[in-house]
Amino acid sequence: MIDLFDVSDAPLVFGERVTLLTDEDFHLPPGRYALMSQTPEWHRPLLDVLAGVRLPRRGRVVHGGAVSWPLGRQGFVRGRGTGLDIINLVASVHELDVDMAADVVTMLVSRPELIDRPVEHWPQFARIEFTFALGLVPDFDIYVIDGSIPSEPSRFTRLWQALFEERLVGKTLILASYRQKQLLDYCAKALVYDGGRFAVNDDLEACIERFPLRPSREDSTGSGATPGDDGGDLGF
Protein backbone atom coordinates (compact mmCIF):
# COMPACT_ATOMS: atom_id res chain seq x y z
CA MET A 1 0.00 0.00 0.00
CA ILE A 2 1.17 3.51 -0.87
CA ASP A 3 -0.70 6.71 0.01
CA LEU A 4 -0.03 10.16 -1.39
CA PHE A 5 -1.36 13.11 0.60
CA ASP A 6 -1.49 16.50 -1.12
CA VAL A 7 1.67 15.71 -3.09
CA SER A 8 3.13 18.25 -5.50
CA ASP A 9 6.36 17.60 -7.35
CA ALA A 10 8.30 19.43 -10.05
CA PRO A 11 11.79 17.93 -10.46
CA LEU A 12 14.40 18.57 -13.09
CA VAL A 13 14.13 15.98 -15.86
CA PHE A 14 16.96 16.08 -18.39
CA GLY A 15 17.69 19.63 -17.30
CA GLU A 16 14.12 20.94 -17.59
CA ARG A 17 11.71 21.65 -14.73
CA VAL A 18 8.65 19.41 -15.14
CA THR A 19 5.44 19.57 -13.13
CA LEU A 20 4.65 15.92 -12.40
CA LEU A 21 2.08 16.13 -9.62
CA THR A 22 -0.10 18.91 -8.22
CA ASP A 23 -2.00 18.43 -4.94
CA GLU A 24 -2.26 14.71 -5.63
CA ASP A 25 -4.19 12.52 -3.18
CA PHE A 26 -3.97 8.87 -4.18
CA HIS A 27 -4.28 5.44 -2.58
CA LEU A 28 -2.50 2.48 -4.18
CA PRO A 29 -3.79 -0.81 -2.71
CA PRO A 30 -1.52 -3.86 -2.47
CA GLY A 31 -1.09 -5.59 -5.82
CA ARG A 32 1.14 -5.95 -8.85
CA TYR A 33 1.17 -2.92 -11.12
CA ALA A 34 2.69 -1.93 -14.44
CA LEU A 35 3.49 1.78 -14.51
CA MET A 36 2.16 3.16 -17.79
CA SER A 37 1.99 6.61 -19.37
CA GLN A 38 2.58 8.55 -22.57
CA THR A 39 5.84 9.86 -21.08
CA PRO A 40 8.12 6.98 -20.02
CA GLU A 41 10.95 9.50 -19.61
CA TRP A 42 9.06 10.70 -16.52
CA HIS A 43 8.77 7.25 -14.97
CA ARG A 44 12.05 7.53 -13.14
CA PRO A 45 11.19 10.66 -11.11
CA LEU A 46 7.68 9.27 -10.53
CA LEU A 47 9.16 6.06 -9.13
CA ASP A 48 11.51 8.14 -6.97
CA VAL A 49 8.49 9.73 -5.29
CA LEU A 50 6.52 6.50 -5.00
CA ALA A 51 9.50 4.64 -3.51
CA GLY A 52 10.48 7.46 -1.17
CA VAL A 53 13.87 7.89 -2.79
CA ARG A 54 13.22 11.61 -3.19
CA LEU A 55 10.86 13.75 -1.16
CA PRO A 56 8.24 15.65 -3.16
CA ARG A 57 8.26 19.44 -3.03
CA ARG A 58 5.10 19.32 -0.92
CA GLY A 59 2.97 16.67 0.73
CA ARG A 60 3.57 13.22 2.17
CA VAL A 61 4.08 9.72 0.78
CA VAL A 62 3.26 6.92 3.23
CA HIS A 63 4.21 3.28 2.68
CA GLY A 64 2.44 0.30 4.19
CA GLY A 65 5.66 -1.57 4.88
CA ALA A 66 9.28 -1.59 3.76
CA VAL A 67 9.77 -0.38 0.19
CA SER A 68 12.73 -1.16 -2.06
CA TRP A 69 14.79 1.39 -3.86
CA PRO A 70 14.06 1.24 -7.63
CA LEU A 71 15.78 -2.01 -8.56
CA GLY A 72 17.69 -2.20 -11.81
CA ARG A 73 19.45 1.14 -11.60
CA GLN A 74 23.20 0.91 -11.85
CA GLY A 75 24.13 4.46 -10.91
CA PHE A 76 25.33 3.58 -7.43
CA VAL A 77 27.49 0.63 -8.58
CA ARG A 78 30.52 2.63 -9.53
CA GLY A 79 33.71 4.14 -8.18
CA ARG A 80 36.57 2.67 -6.20
CA GLY A 81 34.48 0.91 -3.60
CA THR A 82 34.20 -2.86 -3.80
CA GLY A 83 31.06 -4.89 -4.13
CA LEU A 84 31.53 -5.98 -0.54
CA ASP A 85 31.58 -2.32 0.54
CA ILE A 86 28.17 -1.82 -1.07
CA ILE A 87 26.81 -5.03 0.45
CA ASN A 88 28.00 -3.88 3.88
CA LEU A 89 26.25 -0.54 3.40
CA VAL A 90 22.94 -2.14 2.43
CA ALA A 91 23.18 -4.66 5.27
CA SER A 92 23.90 -1.88 7.77
CA VAL A 93 21.02 0.32 6.63
CA HIS A 94 18.52 -2.55 6.66
CA GLU A 95 19.94 -4.12 9.84
CA LEU A 96 20.86 -7.39 8.15
CA ASP A 97 23.63 -9.87 8.81
CA VAL A 98 26.52 -8.96 6.53
CA ASP A 99 27.57 -12.56 5.92
CA MET A 100 24.01 -13.53 4.99
CA ALA A 101 23.75 -10.60 2.60
CA ALA A 102 27.06 -11.47 0.95
CA ASP A 103 26.01 -15.13 0.65
CA VAL A 104 22.83 -14.18 -1.23
CA VAL A 105 24.69 -12.01 -3.72
CA THR A 106 27.58 -14.42 -4.30
CA MET A 107 25.13 -17.29 -4.79
CA LEU A 108 23.32 -15.40 -7.54
CA VAL A 109 25.97 -13.60 -9.59
CA SER A 110 28.01 -15.21 -12.36
CA ARG A 111 31.36 -13.78 -11.23
CA PRO A 112 31.39 -13.87 -7.41
CA GLU A 113 35.16 -13.39 -7.35
CA LEU A 114 34.65 -9.78 -8.48
CA ILE A 115 32.85 -8.78 -5.29
CA ASP A 116 36.15 -8.13 -3.49
CA ARG A 117 37.36 -5.85 -6.30
CA PRO A 118 36.54 -2.18 -7.06
CA VAL A 119 33.34 -2.02 -9.10
CA GLU A 120 34.90 0.49 -11.52
CA HIS A 121 36.82 -2.44 -13.02
CA TRP A 122 33.82 -4.74 -13.43
CA PRO A 123 32.35 -5.57 -16.86
CA GLN A 124 28.91 -4.14 -17.52
CA PHE A 125 27.05 -7.45 -17.19
CA ALA A 126 28.54 -7.97 -13.72
CA ARG A 127 27.25 -4.58 -12.56
CA ILE A 128 23.79 -5.36 -13.86
CA GLU A 129 23.69 -8.73 -12.11
CA PHE A 130 25.01 -7.22 -8.90
CA THR A 131 22.38 -4.48 -8.76
CA PHE A 132 19.53 -6.96 -9.22
CA ALA A 133 21.02 -9.47 -6.79
CA LEU A 134 21.49 -6.79 -4.15
CA GLY A 135 17.80 -5.88 -4.39
CA LEU A 136 16.82 -9.35 -3.17
CA VAL A 137 18.90 -9.15 0.00
CA PRO A 138 16.38 -7.20 2.14
CA ASP A 139 12.87 -8.66 2.44
CA PHE A 140 10.71 -5.79 1.18
CA ASP A 141 6.93 -5.44 1.33
CA ILE A 142 6.86 -3.26 -1.79
CA TYR A 143 9.17 -3.90 -4.74
CA VAL A 144 9.81 -1.14 -7.26
CA ILE A 145 11.63 -2.01 -10.50
CA ASP A 146 12.86 0.61 -12.94
CA GLY A 147 13.74 -1.21 -16.15
CA SER A 148 13.47 -4.70 -17.53
CA ILE A 149 13.63 -7.73 -15.28
CA PRO A 150 16.58 -10.04 -16.10
CA SER A 151 15.57 -12.22 -19.04
CA GLU A 152 18.74 -13.40 -20.78
CA PRO A 153 18.99 -17.21 -20.86
CA SER A 154 21.59 -17.71 -18.13
CA ARG A 155 22.15 -19.27 -14.76
CA PHE A 156 21.85 -15.86 -13.10
CA THR A 157 18.46 -15.18 -14.70
CA ARG A 158 17.06 -18.56 -13.65
CA LEU A 159 18.23 -18.17 -10.06
CA TRP A 160 17.22 -14.52 -9.77
CA GLN A 161 13.73 -15.03 -11.19
CA ALA A 162 13.11 -18.02 -8.90
CA LEU A 163 14.17 -16.08 -5.80
CA PHE A 164 12.31 -12.95 -6.90
CA GLU A 165 9.07 -14.87 -7.41
CA GLU A 166 9.50 -16.37 -3.95
CA ARG A 167 10.08 -12.92 -2.44
CA LEU A 168 7.10 -11.47 -4.31
CA VAL A 169 4.44 -13.77 -2.82
CA GLY A 170 1.89 -11.60 -1.03
CA LYS A 171 3.89 -8.43 -1.77
CA THR A 172 3.29 -5.31 -3.89
CA LEU A 173 5.15 -4.69 -7.15
CA ILE A 174 5.45 -1.58 -9.32
CA LEU A 175 7.21 -2.38 -12.58
CA ALA A 176 8.25 0.19 -15.19
CA SER A 177 9.40 -1.71 -18.27
CA TYR A 178 8.96 -1.48 -22.03
CA ARG A 179 8.87 -5.28 -22.37
CA GLN A 180 5.25 -6.31 -22.82
CA LYS A 181 5.80 -9.96 -21.86
CA GLN A 182 7.29 -8.99 -18.51
CA LEU A 183 4.42 -6.64 -17.75
CA LEU A 184 1.88 -9.38 -18.52
CA ASP A 185 3.87 -12.05 -16.65
CA TYR A 186 4.44 -10.11 -13.46
CA CYS A 187 1.63 -7.55 -13.27
CA ALA A 188 -2.15 -7.83 -12.86
CA LYS A 189 -3.16 -4.17 -13.20
CA ALA A 190 -1.90 -0.89 -14.60
CA LEU A 191 -0.83 2.08 -12.53
CA VAL A 192 -1.65 4.79 -15.04
CA TYR A 193 -0.08 8.24 -14.92
CA ASP A 194 -2.08 10.55 -17.17
CA GLY A 195 -2.78 14.25 -17.04
CA GLY A 196 -0.64 14.68 -13.95
CA ARG A 197 -2.69 12.13 -11.96
CA PHE A 198 -2.39 8.50 -10.91
CA ALA A 199 -5.16 5.95 -11.40
CA VAL A 200 -5.48 2.17 -11.24
CA ASN A 201 -6.87 0.36 -14.25
CA ASP A 202 -7.80 -3.33 -14.01
CA ASP A 203 -7.52 -3.94 -17.76
CA LEU A 204 -3.78 -4.20 -18.24
CA GLU A 205 -3.93 -5.36 -21.86
CA ALA A 206 -6.14 -2.43 -22.84
CA CYS A 207 -3.69 -0.05 -21.18
CA ILE A 208 -0.79 -1.59 -23.09
CA GLU A 209 -2.67 -0.82 -26.30
CA ARG A 210 -3.48 2.69 -25.13
CA PHE A 211 0.04 3.50 -23.95
CA PRO A 212 2.43 2.02 -26.56
CA LEU A 213 5.54 0.62 -24.94
CA ARG A 214 8.82 2.20 -25.88
CA PRO A 215 12.17 2.65 -24.18
CA SER A 216 12.60 5.74 -22.09
CA ARG A 217 15.43 8.09 -22.98
CA GLU A 218 17.90 6.47 -20.58
CA ASP A 219 16.91 2.98 -21.78
CA SER A 220 17.52 4.03 -25.38
CA THR A 221 21.00 5.32 -24.65
CA GLY A 222 21.88 2.52 -22.26
CA SER A 223 23.71 5.07 -20.16
CA GLY A 224 21.95 4.46 -16.89
CA ALA A 225 22.47 8.13 -16.16
CA THR A 226 20.17 9.93 -13.83
CA PRO A 227 17.75 12.04 -15.88
CA GLY A 228 16.84 14.28 -12.98
CA ASP A 229 19.15 16.47 -10.97
CA ASP A 230 17.29 15.53 -7.79
CA GLY A 231 17.42 12.32 -5.79
CA GLY A 232 19.57 9.22 -5.74
CA ASP A 233 19.42 5.52 -6.39
CA LEU A 234 19.35 3.76 -3.06
CA GLY A 235 17.29 6.20 -1.06
CA PHE A 236 19.74 6.47 1.84
Q: In brief, what are we looking at here?
A:
32% of the residues lie in helices and 22% in strands. With 236 residues, it is α/β, with parallel strands linked by helices.
Describe the structure.
This protein is an alpha/beta fold and 236 residues long. Strands 7-8-5-9-10 form a five-stranded mixed sheet, sandwiched between helices. It has helices at residues 43-51, 83-93, 98-108, 124-134, 155-168, 180-186, 204-210, 217-221, and strands at residues 2-9, 12-13, 16-17, 21-28, 32-36, 58-63, 142-146, 172-176, 189-194, 197-201. Strand 2 (12-13) and strand 3 form a beta hairpin. It is globular and about 50 Å long.
CATH class (first level) name of the domain at 2-71 and 142-149 and 178-221? Alpha Beta
How many β-strand stretches? 10
Low-confidence stretches: 220-232
Shape: globular
Secondary structure class reads: alpha/beta
- Rg over alpha carbons: 17 Å
Give the integer mean of the pLDDT values. 89
| Largest sheet strand order | 7-8-5-9-10
Q: Note the main sheet.
A: 5 strands, mixed
Helical fraction equals 25-40%
Number of helices: 8
Note the topology.
Elements: E1 2-9, E2 12-13, E3 16-17, E4 21-28, E5 32-36, H1 43-51, E6 58-63, H2 83-93, H3 98-108, H4 124-134, E7 142-146, H5 155-168, E8 172-176, H6 180-186, E9 189-194, E10 197-201, H7 204-210, H8 217-221
Parallel strand pairs: 5-8, 5-9, 7-8
Antiparallel strand pairs: 1-4, 1-6, 2-3, 9-10
Helix pairs in contact: 2-3, 3-4
Name the descriptors:
236 residues; Rossmann fold; 5-stranded mixed sheet; 3-stranded antiparallel sheet; 22% strand; globular
